[in-house]
Design a protein that fits this description.
Elements lengths: L5 E8 L5 H15 L3 E8 L16 E2 L1 H4 L1 H11 L3 E4 L5 H10 L2 E4 L13 E2 L5 E2 L6 H7 L9 H18 L4 E4 L2 H9 L7 E3 L21 E5 L8 H15 L4 E5 L5 H11 L3 E3 L5 H10 L2 E4 L9 H7 L5 E4 L14 E4 L6 H12 L2 H17 L2 H12 L5
Parallel strand pairs: 1-2, 1-4, 2-3, 4-5, 5-8, 8-9, 10-11, 10-13, 11-12, 13-14, 14-15
Antiparallel strand pairs: 6-7
Helix pairs in contact: 8-9, 8-12, 11-13
Length: about 400
């Protein structure tokens, strides 16, 4: 760019509470390094002790909760942003006001405006990804297919809210997504092919400078993240006995994370005699150490993950993945190259067991997967992401 822009980033949380915030925390200083002036508008402040998006950056931060919607808009106007980079807020009146006042881009991190519950899957009679376009038929399926909660009034209210979200998304000149699956999702929902742009995401930290060195197997399968039904931890536990029998050796499951599904996972592991070790939430250094010890990362999500950044992070240390072929996961988990995939519609423990066996049965193949995962991680580069973003920011009409 010939000069830096005054760029307002808009997000729900100031605290680093998930993948979106981790992405923004890394992105903000990279934008500053390109000469842009950045500011933040956030709906929710960080609690004492929580890591913040703007930690150490010295940038303006405004909260409508403290200033009121109009007060926040006036503060933004006084700062005079040249672009707004929207990452999804709950207050659609605030989003619409910003869209009317400033050239804006929208990054769709999740199923914004395309699903009543946002989970994009049916839970009954078994979890399967949903390919429906948001419409009245979603209300028909919502309760019997257990797409979300059990209140018809809530379903109707959320349906109308998601309709408004989709209408807003269609008004942006450029909508950015992180995977081919997400691009296809929004093309199905009426956005144009020139409007929806897939940009490469990037992992938390740089890949190792060299490919992984040979090492003996550890017998460990690692799962990382919040333990919810959508993340498929129970299916992973159920898959391990079959994989163990086919491989003829023991496998230990190591789980870094916590959540409401942990008791079910513990019960299934005890019933099936699966060795499992729950280490809880860990910091970045310990997560990396666990990845370096494991033979496989399991990403058994039974919903269509918009991307699944943990697989790229694992690839950076030479750890291949096994996963269901859902959502954006096939963008980074290429069968026989950087990991192995199980069928995702429907996702089954038997299919996942087969993927584990394919990844581990042959030492030479596993070594190639380790190196392939490392090469894959290098494609998802922060510099390439910022290049693509800046190209869109400077485009006429943005």
């Amino acid at each position: 760019m010939s000069h830096g822009l005054r760029l307002l980033l808009v997000a729900r949380h100031r605290a680093v509470v998930g993948g979106v915030e981790s992405h923004l925390r890394t992105l903000l200083p990279l934008l500053q390094a390109r000469g842009h002036s950045v500011a933040l508008l956030v709906e929710h402040d960080a609690a004492p002790g929580q890591a913040r998006l703007d930690e150490g950056l010295g940038i303006p931060v405004w909260r409508p909760a403290a200033l009121g919607r109009q007060g926040a808009l006036e503060a933004v106007a006084a700062w005079r942003p040249e672009r707004v980079y929207q990452h999804g807020v709950q207050d659609l009146r605030l989003e619409e006001a910003l869209l009317e006042r400033y050239p804006a881009l929208l990054f769709l991190h999740a199923y914004y405006g395309t699903c009543i519950s946002g989970m994009k899957r049916h839970a009954f009679p078994r979890p399967v990804p949903c390919q429906r376009v948001l419409g009245p038929g979603c209300l028909v399926h919502y309760l019997p297919r257990r797409c979300g909660g059990r209140s018809p009034l809530t379903a109707l209210r959320e349906y109308r809210y998601q309709q408004r979200r989709l209408a807003l998304a269609r008004r942006y000149g450029t909508v950015l997504v992180g995977s081919r699956a997400m691009r296809e999702e929004y093309l199905r929902h009426g956005l144009s092919s020139s409007q929806v742009v897939c940009v490469p995401l990037f992992g938390d930290g740089a890949p190792d400078p060299e490919p992984p060195a040979p090492r003996p197997p550890s017998g460990q399968v690692l799962m990382v993240g919040r333990l919810t039904e959508l993340k498929g931890g129970v299916e992973l536990v159920r898959a391990l006995p079959g994989a163990r029998e086919a491989l003829g050796r023991e496998l230990e499951l190591v789980v870094a994370g916590d959540g409401p599904e942990r008791p079910r996972m513990e019960s299934e592991a005890a019933a099936r005699r699966v060795p499992v070790r729950f280490v809880g939430w860990v910091d970045r250094a310990e997560r990396e150490a666990l990845m370096r010890r494991a033979d496989l990362l399991a990403v058994p999500s039974v919903w269509p993950e918009p991307f699944g950044m943990v697989g790229v992070e694992a690839g950076g240390v030479g750890l291949p993945s096994v996963a269901f072929a859902v959502g954006g996961i096939p963008d980074w988990c290429e069968p026989g190259v950087s990991g192995e995939l199980a069928p995702g519609n429907p996702p089954t423990s038997e299919g996942l067991a087969g993927a584990i066996v394919r990844a581990l049965a042959d030492a030479g193949h596993h070594a190639r997967l380790r190196e392939g995962a490392w090469h894959m991680s290098r494609r998802f580069d922060a510099g390439a992401h910022v290049d693509a973003l800046c190209e869109r920011l400077k485009a006429p009409g943005q």
